[in-house]
């Protein structure tokens, strides 16, 4: 049975500082490292044998995959990194404190930017401190200036279809260590959630979400390995 394990990276430094992070390459905190190791330990205890790992090109997700695989005693697993699994690009909100931004623009407006499906934040200005155009990771990539969850899904889905889904269809067990919004995009895709339905889905950090799939890659079951930190899941 094809099995997909989704693992949101552990707490990052900007998570701790309550900042909009997006594509900024911040590292894990010591708590985030512990969350990643715990996730890997749970994977190992569950007896899951991972065939391949996918992650983004951002350090917090990459190191989460390394720590989790090592803790699961599967550090040898092949890993593929791709920018299309990056976190959502937060545009002009990048680097701003979330609480201060809510005080400035109003909580309702910030909630729309953060949680709506298809309303992106204001675009990032060219030449911004957080301009990624000179980052060699994105050579040849048409960079977004901002993204909604919808446009995040628009870039995740072709990669899913071309790279990840065929491996699952071959019966592999895959770990995708990525970010809250790129993983929510995958959840929306797999479970066929409506635009409104995905808005209520939150994926906790460092808690492996194990999804078993049928031959058509439709979810048969879904569960978090750490039930004490589980969030509500779509019905299978």
TrEMBL record:
Please tell me where substrate binds in this chain: 8-15, 21-22, 60, 87-90, 98, 114-115, 180-181
- EC id: 5.4.2.11
Q: Which InterPro entries match?
A: His_Pase_superF_clade-1 (IPR013078), His_PPase_superfam (IPR029033), PG/BPGM_mutase_AS (IPR001345), Phosphogly_mut1 (IPR005952)
Among its keywords, does the record have Isomerase? yes
Query: What PROSITE patterns would the database entry show?
Result: PG_MUTASE
Per UniProt, subunit arrangement is: Homodimer.
Q: What does this protein do?
A: Catalyzes the interconversion of 2-phosphoglycerate and 3-phosphoglycerate.
PANTHER family linked to this entry: PHOSPHOGLYCERATE MUTASE
Record's protein name: 2,3-bisphosphoglycerate-dependent phosphoglycerate mutase
Report which gene this protein is encoded by: gpmA
């Amino acid at each position: 049975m094809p099995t997909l394990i989704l693992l949101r990276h552990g707490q990052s430094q900007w998570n701790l500082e309550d900042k909009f992070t997006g594509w900024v390459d911040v590292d894990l905190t010591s708590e985030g490292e512990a969350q990643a190791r715990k996730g890997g330990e749970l994977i190992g205890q569950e007896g899951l044998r991972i065939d391949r790992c996918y992650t983004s090109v951002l350090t917090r997700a990459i190191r989460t995959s390394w720590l989790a695989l090592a803790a699961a005693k599967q550090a040898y697993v092949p890993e593929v990194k791709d920018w299309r699994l990056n976190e959502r690009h937060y545009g002009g909100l990048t680097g701003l404190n979330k609480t201060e931004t809510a005080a400035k623009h109003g909580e309702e407006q910030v909630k729309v930017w953060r949680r709506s499906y298809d309303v992106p934040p204001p675009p990032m200005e060219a030449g911004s401190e957080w301009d990624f155009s000179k980052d060699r990771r994105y050579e040849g990539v048409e960079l977004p200036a901002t993204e909604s969850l919808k446009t995040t899904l628009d870039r995740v889905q072709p990669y899913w279809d071309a790279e990840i889904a065929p491996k699952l269809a071959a019966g592999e067990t895959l770990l995708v260590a990525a970010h809250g919004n790129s993983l929510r995009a995958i959840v929306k895709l797999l479970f066929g959630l409506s635009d409104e339905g995905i808005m209520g889905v939150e994926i906790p950090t460092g808690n492996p979400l194990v999804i078993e799939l049928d031959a058509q890659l439709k979810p048969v079951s879904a569960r978090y390995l750490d039930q004490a930190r589980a969030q509500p899941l779509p019905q299978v």
